[in-house]
Amino acid sequence: MKYLNEDVLKQLSEIFSAMTNDVNVALFTKEEPCETCEETKGFMTELVEASPKLKLVHYDINKDSELAEEYGVKMTPSLVLLDQENQYRRIKFNGIPSGHEINSFISSVIAVSGKGQKLPDEIKDRLSKIEKPVNIKVFVTLGCPHCPGAVEKAHLLALENENIVSDMIEAQTFYDLSEEYNVSSVPKIVVNDKFEFVGNQPFEVFLEEIEKAIV
After folding, report:
1. pTM (2 decimals)?
2. C-beta separation of 190 from 181 below 8 A
3. Which helix (H) or strand (E) holds 111?
4. Which residues contact 105 (CB under 8 A, 6 or more apart)?
C-alpha cells in the first residue's frame, strides 16, 4: 500500500529543504497487538524519502526497552525526534502523524533541525525560569485542523527548555488514555497530569498552566 503519492513527496521535499541539520526519527513499535504500528512504519518509511536529512530507525519497545525508557516511550507506535547528534530533544509523537498532524510533524522536524520558529523574548525569559520537570500532553485527532498548532507550541517549549517534555497523543489510537484524561474535545492539553485547557491557545496560556504546575 502506498501512503504518499509523488506529488505529496515533492511538496514535502520542498518544505524539508528548509532543514539546517539532519534529524533522526526513532520509531518504536511492537508485535501484535498494535493496531497502527505497521501503518505508521509504512507511512514513515515513505515520508523520510522526502529528504536526505531525515533518517528513520526502527525499534521494538520490548526488545529495546532500555532505550524506550531513556526516551520515556510507554506506548506504541511512538516517534521520537533526535537531533543530528542523536540527542533526544524531548519531543514525541504517539500515534501516526498523518492527516492534519503531518503539519505538526513537519514543523517539529524543521525546528529540531535548527530552523524553527523563534520564540518572543518575553516567552523565552519566562521559560528560562522553569527549573522543575514539566510534561505536556497534547491530545489530538487526525481530522482536527486546530490541533497541529497546539502540538507545535508544546514542542517548541520543550525544545527551548530541557526540563520540559512534550507528547502528542492521538486520542483515538490511545482511547483508554483519552478516557483516563476525560478527553471530550481536542486539542486538549494536560500539564503535569493536573492542569488542563482546551484549544490552540497562545504561548502565554501554556506558560500560565506550566507555572501553576511547578509551584
Report:
1. 0.96
2. yes
3. none
4. 79, 93, 97
Would the pLDDT of 1 be above 90?
no
* Residue 77 Cα distances to 52, 141, 171, 176, 196, angstroms: 23, 15, 13, 15, 24
- Nearest-CA neighbor of 106 among 157, 170, 51? 51
Per-residue buried b or exposed e for 12-42, using 16+ beta carbons within 10 Å of the residue's own CB:
beebbeebeebbbbbbbbbeeebebbeebbe
Domain check: are 72 and 153 in the same one? no
Spatial distance between the Cα atoms of 121 and 123, rounded to a whole number of angstroms? 5
For the chain, what's the residue count?
215
169 lies in which domain range? 121-213
Q: What is the pLDDT of residue 116?
A: 81
16 and 68 part of one domain: yes
Residues 110 and 196 in one domain: no
